[in-house]
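We store chain and fold; thus.
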Amino acid sequence: MVEDKEKDKSAIYGLDVPVGTWMVSVKVDNEAIWQEWVKEGKVKGFSIEGYFADKMKKNSEDEMLHEVVRAINDVRLQQDLWNAIEQELGQRLED
């Protein structure tokens, strides 16, 4: 990102771009694409597309507490299941 128009790398390359401009370097590994499309001028650039959230949603304290309680209940259910399995196996071994 260009932060200083006079000291930034963009100035070294003779580019006069506004502060805040994104600058990237890209290497085309495919020689045929490089020669036919880039060197011959069929393409002069490309765009980068992204999806960014309009706003960040924070969980309310109640939602976070609900998640904690649900996780604790899941652990309890798993423990109850293991206890039942252990009890059943113990009874079968006694028989």
Remarks:
- Residues 32 and 59 are 51 Å apart (CA to CA).
- Residues 61-94 form the longest helix (34 residues).
- The two ends are 75 Å apart (CA to CA).
